[in-house]
TrEMBL record:
<dbReference type="GO" id="GO:0001851">
    <property type="term" value="F:complement component C3b binding"/>
</dbReference>
<protein>
    <recommendedName>
        <fullName>Sushi domain-containing protein</fullName>
    </recommendedName>
</protein>
<keyword id="KW-0732">Signal</keyword>
<keyword id="KW-1015">Disulfide bond</keyword>
<dbReference type="InterPro" id="IPR000436">
    <property type="entry name" value="Sushi_SCR_CCP_dom"/>
</dbReference>
<dbReference type="GO" id="GO:0006956">
    <property type="term" value="P:complement activation"/>
</dbReference>
<keyword id="KW-0768">Sushi</keyword>
<feature type="domain" description="Sushi">
    <location>
        <begin position="184"/>
        <end position="241"/>
    </location>
</feature>
<dbReference type="InterPro" id="IPR051503">
    <property type="entry name" value="ComplSys_Reg/VirEntry_Med"/>
</dbReference>
<feature type="domain" description="Sushi">
    <location>
        <begin position="371"/>
        <end position="429"/>
    </location>
</feature>
<dbReference type="GO" id="GO:0005615">
    <property type="term" value="C:extracellular space"/>
</dbReference>
<feature type="domain" description="Sushi">
    <location>
        <begin position="62"/>
        <end position="119"/>
    </location>
</feature>
<dbReference type="GO" id="GO:0007596">
    <property type="term" value="P:blood coagulation"/>
</dbReference>
<keyword id="KW-0677">Repeat</keyword>
<keyword id="KW-0325">Glycoprotein</keyword>
<feature type="disulfide bond">
    <location>
        <begin position="373"/>
        <end position="416"/>
    </location>
</feature>
<feature type="domain" description="Sushi">
    <location>
        <begin position="243"/>
        <end position="304"/>
    </location>
</feature>
Length: 502
């Protein structure tokens, strides 16, 4: 064997030999090293035996699987990580990295250092308005692990959440609990210039109590509740004399007050309603005025109003639904029609007796036309009251009627003139008021117990807020009009005060 020699060692992919020669004697050895990013698989050293080399190793690419980090996360995320790849990891709330560095590297032995998240310990608790029991004794042992608890005391005037002067504070994964160990305790007792309870009632920080002041007195800014804060009652349990307004100072024409009180405190509102045919300046049937420092905010105003007129063979660009006294509407006749003054345009005025004229236009051909007409035109949700004929003589008329609950708009009678019928009326849809709709808006019908109702177009429906709710906005109002199947439903929102009964 000693005379048999070996040639150069076999080459391997991604690997090199430590010292390569052309020829090696029996018993000589060589060592393989892998390129960066690859690890050796098998013995790195091979030997020349009897003119042949022993089995060489292979170089395998160094990779790492995605790390498993309970209660943690990392980036970037890949299916496979190669040697020297780096990731940055972090921990969820309540946990912290177990390594000093949060950047770890993929190596041939895995992730270095190994990413791991542990429970975050608790530092010494800073208890506002309280302290730990024997805190100087325990201070050197902080921080402490999750699960530890300590006995604590609250300062005078403060209590725990269970309304005691002492309790336990716990170290949890989310920090110290309770988060606010000591809260203010307020005592509801004597109310200056107001009704006081028969006994002292304790309230905790954040709770509210209702205050009843004597007539002519009020809490600041017209409030009627006080709230227990860290600094005590806000505002203080003191009712101050306030400005009042008298019912005798109210002058109202064409309307009446809805309330019987004679004296009103500052910022209090009183409601009034207008008589039939009159509305407020905003077009409502009712309004409010407020008691201010200088007296009532305004005098109630009920002005004469007119509903939108019905146009016959005419139209207008004015889309208003109501009009106040002396308002005018300009109208224009349809093509082929003029008004009784032989004009294609006209105007009417809202007066105390209603509209000054009827906005009607007539066929220019007149009743002397000899043209005959076919069957009257059909209308949705309505029909003529007589049996239809195939042909109608000039100047013949028919009348329409609507289905039950549908409201006829326009002239119910049409006439055959010059071979054409005058414009037929329309049947306006009724409005459906259902319990489901009212439930969505937190309202109920005010005067009717039935919770499903059909009303005609042009009629009003009056609602009220459900118990414990109040109106969100003043528009749409609680009394609203049905217009061709559509109602603007008012909405109410929940109204709650965190208070205790006396």
């Amino acid at each position: 064997f000693s005379e048999l020699r070996c040639g150069p060692p076999p080459s391997i992919r991604h690997g090199i030999v430590s010292h390569e020669l052309d020829s090696y004697q029996h018993g000589e050895e060589v060592t393989y090293n892998c390129a960066e990013g690859f690890g050796i698989d098998g013995p790195a050293l091979i030997k020349c035996v009897g003119g042949k080399w022993s089995q060489p190793p292979t170089c395998m690419e160094t990779t790492c699987k995605p790390p498993y980090i309970p209660n943690g996360f990392y980036s970037p995320q890949r299916i496979k990580h190669r040697a020297d790849d780096e990731i940055t990891y972090g921990c969820k709330e309540g946990f912290y990295p177990a390594t000093q560095e949060t950047v770890v590297k993929c190596t041939s032995t895995g992730w270095i250092p190994a990413p791991r998240c542990g429970l975050k310990p608790c530092d010494f608790p800073q208890i506002k308005n309280g302290r730990l029991h024997n805190e100087e004794r325990y201070r050197p042992y902080f921080p402490v692990p999750v699960g530890k608890r300590f006995h604590y005391l609250c300062n005078s005037g403060f209590v725990t959440a269970s309304r005691r002067y002492w309790g336990f504070i716990h170290c949890t994964a989310r920090g110290w609990r309770p988060a606010v160990p000591c809260v203010r305790q307020c005592v509801f007792h004597k109310v200056e210039n107001g009704e006081s309870p028969y006994r002292q009632i304790p309230y905790s920080q954040g709770e509210s109590a209702k205050v009843k002041c004597y007539p002519g007195y009020s809490l600041p800014n017209g409030q009627d509740t006080v709230t227990c804060t860290e600094n005590g009652w806000s505002p203080q349990l003191k009712c101050i004399r306030v400005k009042t307004c008298s019912k005798n100072d109210i002058e109202i024409e064409n309307g009446f007050l809805s309330e019987s009180d004679h004296t009103y405190a500052l910022n209090r509102k009183t409601h009034y309603r207008c008589k039939q045919g009159y509305v407020t300046a905003n077009g409502e049937t009712s309004g409010t005025i407020t008691c201010l420092q200088n007296g009532w905010s305004a005098q109630p105003s009920c002005i004469k109003s007119c509903d939108r007129p019905i146009f016959e063979n005419a139209g207008t660009k004015n889309n208003s639904t109501w009009f106040k006294l002396n308002d005018e509407i300009d109208y224009e006749c349809h093509i082929g029609y003029d008004n009784k003054y032989k004009h294609t345009k006209g105007s009417i005025t809202c007066t105390y007796d209603g509209w000054s004229d009827i906005p009607s236009c007539y066929d220019k051909v007149g009743p002397c036309s000899t043209g005959k007409c076919g069957p009257p035109p059909p209308i949705d949700n309505g029909d003529i009251t007589s049996f239809p004929l195939p042909i109608y003589a000039p100047s013949s008329s028919v009348e329409y009627q609507c289905k039950y609950l549908y409201q006829l708009q326009g002239n119910k009678k049409i006439t055959c003139r010059n071979g054409e019928w005058s414009e037929p009326p329309k049947c306006l849809h009724p409005c459906v008021i259902s319990e489901e709709i009212m439930e969505r808006h937190n309202i109920t019908l005010r005067w009717i117990e039935n919770q499903k109702l059909y009303i005609k177009s042009g009629d009003y429906a009056e609602f009220q807020c459900k118990s414990g709710y109040r109106q969100t906005n003043t528009r749409p109002p609680l009394r609203t009009l049905c217009i061709d199947g559509h109602i603007d439903f008012p909405s109410c929102s929940i109204y709650m005060i965190n208070s205790k009964d006396e």
